[in-house]
Amino acid sequence: MRKLFCLVAFFVCWLPAIPGFGQGPVAHQGVIDLRKASLFNNYLKISGEWAFYRNRLLTPDSLSAATPDYVPFPVLWKDIRLHGKPIASQGYATYALTVLLPAKRPRIGLEIHHVYSAYKLYVNGVVQAQNGQPETTPGKATPFWVTRTIAVPPGESDTLVLVMQIANFWHARGGPFKDILLGDKDELFLKKNQDVAYDFMLAGCMLMGGLFFLGLYIFSRHDKTILYFALFCILYSYRMVGTDNYALHALLSDTNWFITIRVEYLSLSLSIALFCVYTRNLYPEDSHPLAMRAMLLFCLLYSAVILVTPTMVFTRFLIYFLMIMFVCIAYAMFVYLQAARHRRSGSLFALLSTAVMLFIFLIGNLNYFGIIPELRGVQFVCYISFFFLQSLALSHRFAETFRRATFQAQQGLRAKSEFLSTMSHEIRTPLNAVIGMTHLLLRNKPRPDQENDLGVLLFSANNLLGIVNNILDYNKIEEGKISIEQIPFDLPVIARNIVAGLQNTADEKGITLLLDVDSRLDRMLTGDPTRTSQVINNLVHNAIKFTKEGSVRLCLTVGDSSVEAITVTIRVEDTGIGILPEKQHIIFDRFTQADSSTSRSYGGTGLGLAISKKILELQGVDLRVTSEPGKGSCFYYTQRFPVAAEAKKEAGKAPAAAGLEPLLRDVSLLLVEDNPLNVLVAQTMLENNGAKVDVATNGQEALDRLDRSRHRLILMDLHMPVMDGYEATMLLRQRGETLPIIALTASMPKEVESDAFAAGLNGVIVKPFSPEELYRVVLQHLQAQ
After folding, report:
1. pLDDT-derived band at 405, boundaries 50, 70, 90
2. Among candidates 155, 188, 180, 161, which has minimal Cα distance to 100?
3. CA distance 487 to 530
4. Residue 452 to residue 698: CA distance in whole angstroms
5. How many domains are contained in the chain?
6. Residues 6+ apart with CB under 8 A from 45
7. DSSP assignment of 714-730, as one string?
8. Which of 63-77, 203-217, 654-668 is most confident?
9. Do 226 and 281 reside in the same domain of the chain?
10. Does 643 score more than 50 pLDDT?
11. Based on C-alpha coordinates, what's the Rg of the chain?
12. How far apart are CA 230 and CA 208, in angstroms?
């Protein structure tokens, strides 16, 4: 520790010798005189007293009519007192500075760091740099962060007039905090290129190191210590390009600031959390579980604050988190000291690496608070040293983790299965309320415009349900075990709803989205509307994604037609990028697109076409493609649908319930359901058609409330507190009750049918359900009595 203290003391004493750390010319009352400075192969800070116009966004033309104050630049607003009063960090202001240039000078450039949180810079009356949009109200203003380097247009004048508008409504800190650099354009652009190269090189080193350790974790015995360090490296690599100079923002200029600032803060809080967990797992005998858990809990709590609170809130707590961060790193050093005393394997390397990391955070935070300049070379060497030393500390674990790989893989598969099962149940339950309430609203005679909106809402909810089912059941699709329904549906309505749902996406890209429906397609068909909708939606969405201009056309064409069946060709044509002939056979593979450049340019998982092809193959249908590079593509398939016995319904309307009320009038039912929204949906559907519904919230209450003289049928949820539906049904059957008991479940039918029928249930209704499905099953069992 004494050596470390001496190293830090030497570093502090060495600071005045760092280039750029000394004080050059400073501005006084809005003017800085650089006429005696040499700008050749050099650049200077233009700091000092700038003219300041609080609560005014002035242009160069309007400066002369305003009276300025003079404040130091760059200084955060919270540290400025104007007329004896502090300035709020939120608001807007204008800064102005006149720069007197030397007669002999090179081409001038400027480097402008980001401010809190948007700015516009005028140079001699012309906007030359801008981050976001500074405005007088939060609704009009937009924040953005990136470091910009610009070349000042050459002119005969030896004077530069800089006017900077700044607005902040989103961050706890407001105003400028880093110096603007002025000097030789070539030097500034060289500095910029070096900074960007440094950022991406260091990020690449961290990312590759993290991926390397992640590979060790995956292909070894799943030692979680290696995993935590790998995740730490990967997560922290973002900070190299997503903070400070924000080199990544320069590449992704359309990135939403409210997302990137959360990613930036999360990359810090979660990195420290991962480092704590990593240290605990590396030397569990030398660390105190309670201390580690407390620090981890604080990091996770701050991460949750970042995710759920406005930016103004979580940025205000950063200073407290930085204090805790130093405590975490100091405690990690104590753990490594203890491990070194006990001669743990690799402890010396871990101790040295933590000392290096502590030094990195020290100089980083001193720079953050403006005490020292950026020391990029020192930071680069320190980061490389840290990861190298930690690599040495972890290298001995590779052999140990290899033996546990099979066991960990099996656990992962079980966890995946449980996760998918839980997700299916949790998503279906709220969707039941959405779909059910939409059906009820459609039956309450809405206005035509409301009816159309509700129709789109209902379609979108059903489509979401279909997408969720496809993702959750993808393994079953690959194995050909997924079931295909055969129920009546209206194919033109599905097509119209898909086009309506994707119209905004097409409009945003300036693409014309067209729909052609054969007039002979005027009958209800029998098939799987969810799967059909999923396939068509995937094809249309895919066409829009890969089309930059022109149109996308969905065509439904009738081929052979008879009283019993209709053959329909469904075709999606686009004027997009097209596909090379040799690539057309691979686009239906999962996670695959035509080439890697397309994947980077257009994104996506590469699952859409694979899922569509699998669904169609299960129905004996082949999905085909014709394409010409640069002209577009056409995906099409031909399917024969049986004609449904039902008459065609009006598009967009909920099926009529006429004739149900006499059948359900005064019929007493017992609804056993613990979810209030699901109770509301089912009870309203039934009571609207004359039924009398009593409600029990668990199985025990159902046993107590059942009246065999009144109740003719029970609707039984399977998962409830106190007593679930299986146990309640078995007890009812043991009591001799013979009335129909219908299961209500958010699980997949195949998962519950065997247990349900074994318990004595007579049928299963899967959530979310439509009114027609509920009425059909209820009446079927009532009429069978």
Report:
1. low
2. 161
3. 10
4. 38
5. 4
6. 20, 24, 179, 180, 181, 182
7. EEEESS-SSS-HHHHHH
8. 63-77
9. yes
10. yes
11. 34
12. 10
Residue 722, domain CATH: 3.40.50.2300
Q: Is residue 473 in some structural domain? A: no
User: Alpha carbon of 475 to those of 295, 348, 588: distances in Å?
Assistant: 40, 47, 16
**Domain co-membership, 212 together with 345:** yes
CB-based contact 50:70 (threshold 8 Å): yes
Q: Is 46 helix (H, G, I), strand (E, B) or coil?
A: coil
Q: What is the DSSP letter of 647?
A: P
The answer to whether 634 and 627 are in contact (CB under 8 A) is yes
Residues 451-487 have pLDDT tens digits of: 888 877 877 777 677 667 656 656 566 555 577 888 8
Query: In the 8-state DSSP scheme, what is residue 251?
Result: H
Q: Give me the pLDDT at residue 647, please.
A: 47
pLDDT of residue 220: 65
For residue 5, pLDDT beyond 90: no
Task: Work out the burial of residue 368: count CB atoms within 10 Å of its CB; fewer than 13 is exposed, 13-18 middle, 19 or more buried.
Answer: middle
Q: Which residue type does 226 have?
A: I
Give the domain extent around 81: 25-179
Contact 685, 654 (CB under 8 A): no
Mean pLDDT (whole number) for 767-775: 83
Q: Do the Cβ atoms of 235 and 414 come closer than 8 Å? A: no
The residue count for the chain: 785
Same structural domain for residues 234 and 328?
A: yes
Return the bridge partners of 573, or none: 553, 634
What residues have CB less than 8 Å from 201, skipping those under 6 apart?
Answer: none
- For residues 577 and 547, give the distance between their C-alpha atoms in angstroms, rounded to a whole number: 6
Strands 31-33 and 91-100: parallel
Q: Is 499 a domain residue? A: yes
291 in the same domain as 378: yes
CA dihedral 141, 143, 144, 149 (to 10 degrees): 60
Outline where DSSP puts E strands in 668-775: 668-672, 692-696, 711-717, 741-745, 763-766
Strands (E), 132-207: 148-151, 159-168, 181-184
pLDDT band of residue 536 (cuts 50, 70, 90) is very high
8 A C-beta contact, residue 713 and residue 739: yes
CB 767 within 8 A of CB 745: yes
If one compares 575 and 434, the residue with the highest pLDDT of the two is 575
Residue 651 within a domain: no
Residue 239: Cβ within 10 Å count = 19
Long-range interactions of 244-251: CB distance < 8 A, separation 24+: 244/147, 244/199, 244/374, 245/113, 245/146, 245/147, 245/195, 245/196, 245/199, 246/114, 246/145, 246/146, 246/147, 247/195, 247/196, 247/199, 247/200, 249/144, 249/145, 249/146, 250/146, 250/147, 250/196
If you average pLDDT over residues 707-730, what whole number do you get? 90
* Co-location of 311 and 341 in the same domain: yes
Question: What is the per-residue pLDDT across 113-143, written as a single tens digit (0 to 9) for each?
Answer: 999 999 999 999 999 999 999 999 998 999 9
Are the CB atoms for 48 and 73 separated by under 8 Å?
yes
Same domain, 748 and 668: yes
Tokens of 184: 């030789």
CA 168 to chain centre: 25
Sign of the dihedral defined by the CA atoms of residues 382, 386, 392, 395, in that order: negative
Separation of alpha carbons 297 and 114, rounded Å:
32
Residue 640: phi and psi, rounded to 5, are -100, 125
Q: Is 517 domain-assigned? A: yes
Nearest of 705, 662, 685, 723 to residue 714 by alpha carbon? 705
Contact 93, 166 (CB under 8 A): yes
Do 248 and 141 reside in the same domain of the chain? Answer: no
785: amino acid identity, one letter: Q
